[in-house]
Amino acid sequence: MSQGEELVQCPCGRIIRSVDDYKVMFIKKEMLEIDILCPNDSCYLRELGFIKFRMEGDKAKFEKAVFYPPFVTWNASQMGHEKAERILKEHLKKLVLERIDWEWVAREVLKAREQEEKAEG
Ligand SMILES: [Zn+2]
Question: Which residues contact 61 (CB under 8 A, 6 or more apart)?
């Protein structure tokens, strides 16, 4: 299997060669959601998917990871539904296991909650 077979593409044209190419940003802290973004800064889609988790005590527990339909549909139209699904599933798995520092995420949530409590007085 050649390496080229595992490429996916954002509808904006940007090729994503590996999970390292995605931008992962943790902005929606109170929603316990991590955004998966296109590496192209001028991408019109920007958000390709998200990773959802829950808090159990002071630990972050992974719940689900999803790519949004425009990204999935685009790749399915390029390489076929089955192949796109397989590669994108693999990418989500790697994003969750390799790109996210779950201890850091949990700390950020706790920090945000603390600040919220302070703001409320
Ligand atoms: Zn893009």
Answer: 53, 54, 55
38 C-alpha to ligand 1 centroid (Å):
5
Closest CA to 76 of 41, 19, 68, 50: 68
**In angstroms, what is the span from residue 115 Cα to ligand 1's centroid?**
34
Rounded-to-5 percentages of helix, strand, coil across the chain: 45, 30, 25
Ligand 1 centroid to residue 22 C-alpha, Å: 10
Q: For 27-71, write each residue's pLDDT tens digit.
A: 889 899 999 999 999 999 999 999 999 999 999 999 999 999 999
Q: What one-character DSSP code corresponds to residue 97?
A: I
Output the CA 109–ligand 1 centroid distance in Å.
28
